[in-house]
Design goal:
- By secondary structure, this protein is mostly helical.
- It is about 80% helix and about 0% strand.
- The protein has six helices and no strands.
- Helix 1 packs across helix 2, helix 3 runs antiparallel to helix 4 and helix 3 crosses helix 5.
- The longest helix is centred in the N-terminal third of the chain and has 35 residues.
- It is extended and about 65 Å long.
- The two termini are about 20 Å apart.
Length: about 190
């Protein structure tokens, strides 16, 4: 869900960048043009991802790639990457395309792989996931102290944390309480 939210946010920001009102005011035509751009980019990226995921499933199901586990694993990874490249080369969202390609591959292609390829592919993607997360968090952590134009304001930090806690309380406790009105196995307060 969070990956889809991020992907939609990226596509939405591209669509908003294309919103070009010349007068500086709201223009209906430019708004619907940006909305259409968003729908076309999201839909086309979705289509490319699903088609490449299904193509990978068909290739692994109806060929003799099971006899070559290394080739099978390489094909699985390269088809995912080629989905990203294809979408980006078409000025679409590679992230959305890879997301839906991965969903199709996880549902269909992964079951067509040989046991050796399943293990190798799963291990490879776990390794890539681990390395990517560590790189991102390390980069963010290092950039926090190397960025020259930080302004540390204690008031802002304190009020931000207060806002986070109030927002969580308003969302989690109140919504869980409303759900508990009709819910048979009630959500205990310790789980909220």
């Amino acid at each position: 869900e969070s990956v889809l939210n991020d992907a939609v946010a990226i596509v939405m920001s591209r669509a908003i960048e294309s919103y070009g009102g010349k007068s500086g005011k709201f223009e209906t035509l430019a708004f619907f043009s940006a909305l259409l751009n968003f729908i076309v980019i999201l839909g086309s990226s979705f289509f490319i991802g699903v088609m490449m995921g299904c193509l990978t499933a068909i290739i692994t199901k109806f060929t003799r790639l099971r006899d070559f586990p290394l080739l099978e694993s390489v094909l699985f990874v390269l088809m995912s990457y080629s989905t990203f490249l294809m979408a980006e080369a078409s000025n679409l969202s590679g992230i959305v395309a890879v997301l839906f390609c991965g969903i199709c591959q996880a549902h269909y292609t992964f079951n067509n792989l040989s046991p050796d390829s399943r293990l190798a592919t799963k291990s490879l993607f776990e390794l890539i996931n681990f390395l990517s997360e560590n790189f991102i968090f390390s980069y963010i952590g290092v950039s926090m102290f190397t960025f020259e134009h930080h302004r540390w304001e204690l008031d802002f930090i304190v009020f931000s944390f207060i806002g986070i806690f109030v927002g969580r309380a308003l969302n989690i406790y109140i919504l869980s309480g409303i759900m508990n009105i009709r819910r048979v196995p009630r959500i205990p307060v310790s789980f909220m």
